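Quick start: read one record
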Amino acid sequence: QVQLVESGGGLVQPGGSLLLSCVTSGFIFRDYGMSWWRQRPGKDREYVATITTSGHPYHANAVKGRFTISRDNAQNTLYLRMNNLKPEDTAVYYCYRPGSVSAWGQGTQVTVSS
């Protein structure tokens, strides 16, 4: 059974940082490119970042230079380091595994507010 479990969200002030984690199980993690998505209040879910099986990262323009996606294949874990957070980054953040049968985590809430 494929499982993706996010953690690390919370309340942070503008300019602050958070590290999100996505612990996975039920599939061979190193064989999949992985992504982070987010859903801001009242908005559609939107793409944040992707990391390939070889570790190459790609980031959406809205987060480029502030967020960094990474992976630890030994720990079957995906990460998203978020720096210089802004109020508009407030969202539920989801871990996503593409494929013929895709999988989503349950999400972790990030709130950026003073």
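The radius of gyration is 13 Å.
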